């Protein structure tokens, strides 16, 4: 599917993987709506790429529905929806302060898993009501998991569970949507050079680079390039693609 002229939504695009993806899609000619809770940062990116910034709590039905309506009014129905919004707090099941906080676990599941499902359901509902853009496809939904879905480390129980859920959503939704002309894919990144990691001490960054068989962290632009390829390749659906430089994470 050629992205030129199509409406696109990218969540969590005020920074990191989402920002790189929004910039890539805009450079390819898409009309991009950035969904993020950080409206100021989102607006800055939107201004630079000629898109729009929309405040959105991805885990809230009313907020998401309103955000989709805003994007639809500005750019038409989004034919490309990429979910990058997520959180990754670390906590052991039993730590110094006792058992894992249940509210924290619920929050991670709510943002990462329910938020991704929320975006997917609204995207699919909009897409299937439209005519195909190329006599075949009505749209594509691309979600973001993590290699933690398979290689969860100590302290990542909530995060790994949430990303495992995202990975498991992929095939059933893809199977349901395939006859309707909508593809569904998931990317599972490894250690990526996001602002959070690049803000760590130099020795920590070096250790992270050495842990990857390919010798370095992935670049957000490489994630964005993969997203763009998925959009363009009409036979990709129902799969989780690991993007990790051959990394298999150790227990800790």
Automatic annotation (TrEMBL):
It is an enzyme of class 1 (oxidoreductase). It holds the Pfam family adh_short_C2. Keywords: Oxidoreductase. SUPFAM superfamilies: NAD(P)-binding Rossmann-fold domains. The keyword Transmembrane helix does not apply. Its EC number is 1.-.-.-. GO terms for molecular function: oxidoreductase activity. Belongs to the short-chain dehydrogenases/reductases (SDR) family. PANTHER family: 17-BETA-HYDROXYSTEROID DEHYDROGENASE 14-RELATED, SHORT-CHAIN DEHYDROGENASE/REDUCTASE. This is Putative enzyme. It comes from Candidatus Terasakiella magnetica.
